[in-house]
Amino acid sequence: MPTARASIVAVLAFVAGCAGYARPVEPRPRPPRPSGPAPSFTLTAFDVGTGLAVFVRGEDFTLLYDGGSNDDRKLGPDNRLLAYLRPALGPPDAAECADEDAPRSNESSRTLDHLFLSHPHRDHLQLLPDVLRCHHVANVWESGLEGDTAGYRTFRDAITSERGVVHHVGGRDFTSGHSFRLGRSASAVVLSVRPDAKEPNDASIVLRLDLGGTRVLLMGDATGGERRVPEAPPDRGSTEQSLLSLGRKALAADVLVVGHHGSKTSTRAALLDAVRPKVAVVSSGPMPYAGVVLPDRDIIDLLVSRGIKVHRTDESDDKCRDAESKVGRDHDGSPGGCSAVTVEVERGTLMRVTHEPASD
């Protein structure tokens, strides 16, 4: 029978061992609210021209997935992403971020709980440093693939300059399969993150959101390989091939934010048939990618052929540049600010999709 002294030594050794154990960085969610009626959620694909910015809001959390553009890239007070975020987050914290033309308000800025950068391309990150400078952000998530552009370096500098931000890096702090709570009735699962991907698009954080009884799949620019007809199987080693190995149960979603702006590099028929969405959201604009203006007609036709309702942010591009009423600056020569797509989830399951005209 061990002596009292031996028992004490054993306990102290156990405690010391636990203290040395490196626990993974966990996000700091807001405290859950008491149970009650099923909550409501909104998902909005902002119209940022040729790029992607998706904002998700629940009763007890906020999440921004990407925020960039190739052609609507004004920064500071003219940053259109800040104008879109204002109704949800309130006025910016920093005076240099304030829009002098915006109505005066005594309300305080609210925290953005989660900011995701799917991968380090300009059309996904260009507008994000201002978000970090102008609002408090609790958690920043990125793929772990470091970009080699000035825009990406500015993004990283903005993270380190802000106090209290928890920075989650793919491959270091989380991997594919990582899940966490967003709020009382919402959670997130990282289905894919590949910091060692040969192509930056395939490093994209593929994120599934479970919003009550509704699922959303955010693909970033994850691909099925080279540009091919949608009926072709995903290329070997592609992100879409890897996702298919997870099975339909993991991939099934009601809302699909279509990968790579609707390019034929993504959304192969096999993946679409596994996801089986009711609604597809395509964020795109007029600026060509390698000579191709997205979305590709083949992808839109595939979605329609499956009975999926397609909603696009580029429907007003021709009129939008000189529109007199936009989110953000009016008639500013940029294509964004006119055709945001919002999916409303009520009572946990009921979905309604609206196209929001420009208005501040």
What overall form do the CA principal axes indicate? globular
CATH-level-4 superfamily name: Ribonuclease Z/Hydroxyacylglutathione hydrolase-like
> How far is the first residue's CA from the last residue's CA?
75 Å
What's the average pLDDT?
Answer: 90
Question: How does this model look, in words?
Answer:
The chain has 360 residues and is an alpha/beta fold. It has a single domain (34-356), classed as Ribonuclease Z/Hydroxyacylglutathione hydrolase-like (Metallo-beta-lactamase, Chain A, 4-Layer Sandwich), CATH 3.60.15. It contains ten helices and 15 strands. It has helices spanning 4-19, 80-89, 122-125, 128-134, 150-161, 239-244, 248-251, 269-275, 297-305, 317-320, and strands at 41-45, 51-58, 61-69, 112-117, 137-142, 166-169, 179-183, 186-192, 206-211, 214-218, 255-257, 279-282, 309-312, 340-346, 350-356. Strands 6-5-4-3-2-1-14-15 form an eight-stranded mixed sheet. A seven-stranded mixed sheet has the order 7-8-9-10-11-12-13. Helix 2 (80-89) links the parallel strand 3 (61-69) and strand 4 (112-117). Helix 4 (128-134) packs parallel to helix 5 (150-161). The radius of gyration is 21 Å and the shape is globular. Residues 4-24 have low confidence and may be disordered.
